[in-house]
Amino acid sequence: QVQLVESGGGSVQAGGSLVLSCTVSGCTGGMSWFRQAPGKEREFVSGIGRPGNIHSDSVKGRFTISLDKNTNTMYLHMNSLKPEDTAMYLCKCQRVLTTFWGQGTQVTVSS
Which residue in 2, 81, 75 sits closest to 32, CA to CA? Predict the structure, then answer.
């Protein structure tokens, strides 16, 4: 059974930084971070990839995704945060045709 538990969200001023964590168990597929702001569709943020990780254009150069295989924890390091980064951040496991989501962690960036 796949379980994803996010943590690390909070409130920060524009220009600040946060690190999100996703503790993962049972995921043998692709792993990534998504976010969803109120009234907007869920959007891709960053993903663990081979040979390299991938980031959306809106966060490229500011966010970094990483995976610690020893602790089965996926991280999202977020720098130079902007008010438009405000959203619920969710981690995702894509295993063949089945998608698993965590419960999400809220990030709020004030100007």
Answer: 75
